[in-house]
């Protein structure tokens, strides 16, 4: 096959997979009934209905408030955390970083459940606080608490990009400031962080965007009457009219995409700007860490306190709850310990199947996805054409669809296209949804590996008479095999924690842990939810341990 045919074939398949779900959603939003209803007609009635609803506007403004509050908390804390970890002598940096990244890889619903059983009205820490203080000094079920938790758990997203920018930043100006007598805080606020301003702004836009796709936290922690966000409003629309309200749901999806798409492409522009600030200059990269003196332990304590609030509290809560029969004020922990909840998991075939499916989608599905991402990356690698820019934008499109939206759009594709319908009740539907939603992330992983391959060996193979496709197969792919392994491990971690994408695709035989947690929570099965959450965390923990052991760069 000629290389040009391969490139356009890959481009066509990618465009179809990305654009078909969005096109169907837009089409459905202009109908008076579900697209499979013969009585459906083109109309703006669905838009009129949704825009006239008070719940829609409440959800929109609440979502914007949460997104803004998240960014206000996560951006300064994440940037300062990056400075402390990259530029100072804070103790234990090499051990702290994997812990800092845990909130990124643990499912949001698991974190939410953990906070409920830890600091809810009768949570483990709440009862301890009441025993000591006589009252519980916090209210978990409030908009303020939701914003605070969302902001604190998204600090690692800002940290990732800020730390990466700082690692690529020359130290000349910092050293000059230190010689002039500036203290570490002045160096951070006046020199280092302003120099990576575009990267911090990029991270801020990212966190604001992530606020619009929040689902797990508001679903579990939000009062439906007071904290309705766009994602839970979409969930609420499922049977708004007493029948499948596809046209109303499609309008909500179009609104979400219309808001998030500009944010996604703004991120791309900001990332380009951020790269201009990278200024590694020979010996300038090698520098002595800023000495904090006695304040290094204050910095260490602050980081540990943040880890306690965002990691230890929810994970301890959900773990303890999975090993007790009940919990409440006056309960002695030693009297209620049990392993029964884990044994109960074995009594539910769909739960066992969900665990197996989750492992399968992470191990096998992750490997197949990385192979697909590699095929796309190879198609545009060293292709000096305007088509590469189209691919760059194309792979960013799914990022504008929150997982819940993408799962719904894929469900409609399977219903709309007759020959694809049999796949709806198989794990192929879940895998396809995951792969499309995380297309931009997977492409970035593989493309970063390809950029490390020099052109010399490829050119030597071409001089020897090998065609372009054979060069990619016999030279390029073997050279990036370790990068592909690292990419597979990271994709495994993402797929195992994913929850919202599979909710609308959940069915007999296609259960995964994330979507099962949401459905079990709805039935009040807190014991099963706790035990299953711990199983999910253990999967992620093993994946993280393997990644760290193999030297996979988690920080980007």
How would you describe what is shown here?
The chain is mainly α and 556 residues long. It contains 27 helices and no strands. The protein is globular. It is 70% helix and 0% strand. The two termini are 35 Å apart. It has a domain at 1-24 and 339-556: Orthogonal Bundle (MetI-like fold). α1 (3-29) packs across α20 (403-416), α10 (172-179) runs antiparallel to α11 (184-195) and α25 packs antiparallel against α27 (526-549). The protein has helices at 3-29, 45-51, 54-87, 93-100, 102-105, 108-119, 124-133, 143-153, 155-167, 172-179, 184-195, 197-212, 216-221, 230-236, 246-275, 295-322, 340-345, 349-380, 387-396, 403-416, 427-437, 439-450, 456-463, 468-479, 481-497, 513-522, 526-549.
Secondary structure blueprint with pairings:
Elements: H1 3-29, H2 45-51, H3 54-87, H4 93-100, H5 102-105, H6 108-119, H7 124-133, H8 143-153, H9 155-167, H10 172-179, H11 184-195, H12 197-212, H13 216-221, H14 230-236, H15 246-275, H16 295-322, H17 340-345, H18 349-380, H19 387-396, H20 403-416, H21 427-437, H22 439-450, H23 456-463, H24 468-479, H25 481-497, H26 513-522, H27 526-549
Helix pairs in contact: 1-15, 1-18, 1-20, 2-15, 3-8, 3-9, 3-12, 3-14, 6-16, 9-12, 10-11, 12-15, 14-15, 16-27, 18-21, 18-22, 18-25, 20-21, 22-25, 23-24, 25-27, 26-27
What's this model, at a glance?
With 556 residues, the chain is mainly α. It is built from 27 helices and no strands. About 1% of the residues have low confidence.
